[in-house]
Amino acid sequence: MGVTIYGPGVHIPETVLTNADLEKLVDTSDEWIFSRTGMRERRISLDKGVREMGTLAVYDLMSRVPFSPEEIDEIILATNVHDGNRTFPAHAALIAGDIGARKGIPAYDQILACTGLVGAIRTGYNNIIAGVVDKLLVLGAERISKFTDYADRHTCVLFGDGAGAYLLQRSEEEGVIKNVLGSEPDMGGKGWPNGYLTTEKREGLQIVSKNNGEFQTEKRKKNYLIMDGGKVLKFAARVMKQSVLDVLEGTGYSLEDVDVVLPHGANIRIVNAAKKGLEKEGLKGVVFHNLERYGNTSTASVPLAAAEAKERGIIKEGSLVVNVAFGAGFTYGANLYRARFSR
To answer: Which of 11, 19, 80, 114 is catalytic?
Structure first.
């Protein structure tokens, strides 16, 4: 018995926030942003929340891999925060209602920061292997723009919004092969008492609308994302490389067998450092990301990259793929699977 993963379906917000737009909001420049992050633009959602974006990603998945919502036995949503600073009610349950899933199925949110989608695939896989369910949906949906301070040039240049969804199904063919998940507690340090990647309540600048081509902002006091970039980079590059190696261990596959690595799109320096390390260990496949156009969409970054890689023929039917991510907490993990396009 195996577990096949189909998809992803995605939702990409319409509103584009470019580096030129950010130059008008904060002391920065296109050259400064691109040289440090690899990003030119990102999408932000001005009108749809995590629930709506997740629902639209499922509908897109249904158009690519036809199935009925009544077939679904469970729904897992990986996200950081709902709209604003709310963390309840469970948006997975609301998405279940929006798509017309059967009443009574488990539907729950899972928080592992940016590692959430990787962790949710692991949870879904385990539930199917255990015989608890036959088919389930795994989603990653984020509206990080709602807790980004657009007066903080160190963080506001990084993040975007979006959503992705996968169908996991019991099958007899090779699909998901192995998952790994881990953590190294982020206890912070001098000047960072609550951690190197966390939130802090303060007055910040929020984007609230776009009129006549210009973004409108308001000062609001709330929890905003804060980060010590240097500390996060050192951790992330190390664990992303190690997670890829760990997910291959004991499977009979090596780095040379991997066709595509889909890294969580956090920062080009992190991706390149992990890529360089993996290539030294024997990786011959493609490390694919679309950071330049979407920025860091947290749990949505892997499915957004996967969808584009499939459209461009980089991921083919039967490709051996690794998803790898890290997140606040600190968390990290990877999935190893064979790509499948149709049921």
So the answer is: 114
